[in-house]
C-alpha cells in the first residue's frame, strides 16, 4: 500500500450466507414464534406479551437448541431459549456460560453509575469492576 491508501477490513472466511433469498444484512429480521394472543401466553400480562412473541432471526442458530423449545414462547428478541440452553449446558458441563453475572455487570454497571451521576449533577463517579468471575461453575 502506498502513502494515502487506506486498508479496508473484511471479515475472515467466506462471505456471509444469504438467508431465505434475503441479503446477509437482513439476517436480523425476526419471524415471530407466537402471536401475542396465543393461549400459551395467557399467564403473561397483556402489556408484556409482545416481548414473548418477538421471535427469532435467521442469524440465530436454532439447530443447537433442544426440540422442546421449537414452539415455546420466546422473548427478548429471541434470546430466552439460548440463555436457558446456555444455563443448562453450563450446569451439566460444569463450565461457566458465555453470559454470566460478571459479563452482565460489565454491561449494566456503567448505566447505573451514569444514572447516579446524572442525579448528582454530572459528578464523575467510578465504575466498579467485579472481575471475571470463576473459571468453572
Features:
single chain, mainly alpha, 2 domains, 3 helices, 137 residues, disordered N terminus
Number-wise, the strands total 0
The best one-word shape is: flat
Helix proportion range: 25-40%
CA-atom Rg in angstroms: 21 Å
* Low-confidence spans: 1-25
Question: Which class do the helix and strand fractions yield?
Answer: mainly alpha
Run of helices and strands: HHH
How big a fraction of the residues is strand?
under 5%
Q: How many domain units?
A: 2
Distance between the first and last residues' Cα: 48 Å
Reported for the largest beta sheet, the result is: none
* Arithmetic mean pLDDT: 75
Question: Helical element count?
Answer: 3
How would the blueprint of this fold be written?
Blueprint: H1 49-52, H2 79-93, H3 101-119
Describe the protein:
With 137 residues, the chain is mainly alpha-helical. The chain has two domains: 30-63 and 70-95, no CATH class; 100-137, no CATH class. Helices cover 28% and strands 0% of the residues. It has helices spanning 49-52, 79-93, 101-119. The longest helix has 19 residues, at 101-119.
What would a concise description of this structure say?
The protein contains 3 helices and no strands.
